[in-house]
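Researcher: First entry.
Model:
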Amino acid sequence: MKVIASIFTLVLAFTISASAQDMMDKEVKTISLEQTKGEFTEKSVTVEEGTYVFEVSNNHAAAEVGLVLIKKGADPSNPDNHIKTAYVTTVVKDGETQKTSPTTLTKGEYEYFCPMNPTPQYTLIVQ
């Protein structure tokens, strides 16, 4: 009887874990950003609190582009201020699109920019 109870508990734990992961996967939303020469086409973005993946497209902006996200007011030249999960997982080559890792955004203001295709800093507001 103990063996059956142990097996049942183990199966239940795996089922709950898989269901929780499925729910988390469904809650990740995408923010699409396109870069052209010297700028992002999206000048500001407003979203709700949550977990997001940034999808960055390189529309002939430069040979390679990327994404840096910081809290508003942080020194952008200091990599310690960069939200590392918002880096694209691979540099975005001309004509391609790449994604970041899931990034949890809490209420407040952020700024995003690209140092490789030098762009201004744009505002991301999380409500």
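Researcher: Second entry.
Model:
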Amino acid sequence: MNKILAQCPLFYGLSPEETENIFEGIFFKTKEFKVGEIIAYQDEKVENLMIILEGTARGEMVDFSGKTIVIEEIESPRPLAPAFIFGKNNLFPVNIVAQTDTKVLKIPKPEFVKMMQKCDRLLTNFMNNVSGRAQFLSQKLKFLSFNSIKGKFAFYILNLAKSNNTNNIILPLSQSQLADLFGVTRPSLGRAIRELHNGNIIRADAKSIQILNRSELYELMK
């Protein structure tokens, strides 16, 4: 288990031996879920830090029409809703469903507090993880203000170009990650990028993007 946790964002920089020491005297358990089983229900209180040790889960919610919307896919070894373990309204924001046969590590909240008190690095990693998630959601809110996928992508690459003072940029995220950030599907994003490329507004080659027509990109943001 320690070798798996070494790849988890919460345990970055810790050796398997250090991780083993952190778990010494700590109560925890693992639970296995079959494909399609509910790992946690929306609005259920978050009593444990949960980390996927094996398999893949997805966060999903049901809209008012009864349609199921997949919000995010979570792969091993990532924590489930770490930002909601503390705070007044610490409820799962979505249903967490096993997408494959999945094994989950469950650490009760008081035990996790003990672990962070034992290890400054774990505490720092946890704070960075929660802060990074908050920053991701803040960015996502910005993109929701644009009506079109092309407008979202234009805003994104223009900001990258401004930060690097160049028209030639390398996308730091994959198309799947960008689609998640924009709140759209990956095929729809891919199609929008191809149309911008074919329209000679940008030149796209995998993650390499060259801006050819800035004025057209600004128009897409209106």
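Model: Note on the second entry: The chain has two domains: 2-141, 146-220.
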